[in-house]
Predict the 3D structure of the following.
Amino acid sequence: MNNISHLISLLGGTGSVAEKLKIKPSAVSNWRKLNKIPKNKISAILSISSQLKINAEDYLPRKNLNNFNVKILLIICGGIASYKSLEIIRLMKKTNIDLEVVITKSAQQFITPLLVTSLIEKKCYTDLFSVENESKMNHIMLARKPDFILVAPATANIMAKLANGIADDLASTILLASFSQIILAPSMNPVMWSNLATQENYQKLLGRGIEFIEPDVGEMACGESGTGRFPEPKIIFEKIVSNINKRKNTTDQFKDVSIIITAGPTIENIDPVRFISNRSSGKQGFAIASEFSKRGARVTLISGPVNIPFPKCANIIQVTTAKEMFEETMSQLPADILICSAAVADWKLVPESSSKKKINNENKIKKTKQELLFKTIKNPDILATVAKSNLRPSIVVGFSAETNNVIKNAKSKLVSKEIDLIVANDVGENKVFGDDFNKVFIIDENNCEEWSEQSKKSVASNLADRINKIFINSYI
Ligand code: C5P
């Protein structure tokens, strides 16, 4: 049996692979015969393989794996480890990665632009103002072009600048102006690494979804020991490759899948000036919308009033009240997946006088000597209504924010609302709302998983993986 044939057998055989890829079985038979998988199907094969925990890379020709087709910007900061980044460049040059390099002023104390230029066989960038003079490149273009920005070694200085939004040179300006996935590989003296300032910056950056390749523990060039050593260039390169593969495998994961996501709070007006609402920031829902969009889904984000920037997604609908959110959600059906992360106000308030007479609230209600009372009117439960409707999406996911009995309450919502998955968290003492981190339990009919505290972006990515598993199972 040849390599490809072996791989296809491991993936369940010709019929199963054809079905998963929605192609004819005869095409897969041909691959087996020719011992070759067409380039445009490699990422789908890698994706199925990783779901089945099979290492497809063992069976695919090396040239397919070196065909990364990504753009990377490497920023080299100044430190004793700067020279090690030349080895990262050498490893990347063996592939078809489209590489640009920026060297900070202090890195030039350790390596020269000429050395880097001769390695990458093109200009490397050093200065904010000279880059502006280049006709074909400016710092915004350098920031926007790459899929990934790798900062290696990343100094305490660049971490501090990025955490605080300082843009005083080319590297820090690019980092601030970029939408790309940023990966930092810090390297510094152990005391600098463990300094509270660096650790606070590290936490801040993690919370914003910036990835880290953690420094190693060991003896440093300065003679001191501890955490702060630059990891081996090969390890950094491998981490980048695994990031690229993950991105490749997930780019089309939800292609042609329609997802409705509700996010943020709703607001219920009392009169034209006053309202009731809650502390939801919309950050978790927006991170989910952004993650599914990156994975190819057609995302409709229905958001209550928030103070954060909207993510890139196909369709954004802004609402104020629970009733509007309900109507907009219903109008977007049918859809394949519904994720209700919004903190919907459970009631609207109707002001009444102490003699229980309805008060006219078209204009601002005037203070009188009488007490003001409120009648509560229940808002529609969007999640439960859609889950129990004829137009129920094949996967319905809810959120459960609780201050006590988190798991018990979430489980009872899962059952009463007839949904597939619930993401539960403890919001007591103002935890979670507005924060960049989240600590959640993922509960389905049979299991309750406790996820460690992580950034909301990371929760979104893990949730997308989890939903993908349910999605695949629903087709098997
Ligand atoms: O019942 P409870 O409000 O605790 O349920 C929370 C879940 O239900 C969340 O997923 C929330 O988005 C959804 N929900 C809804 N419509 C409501 C109330 C809650 O979709 N009116």
Summary: The mean pLDDT is 91. The first strand starts at residue 71 and ends at 76. The pocket of cytidine-5'-monophosphate is lined by residues 262, 322, 340, 342, 344, 346, 379-383, 398-400, 413 (CB under 6 Å).
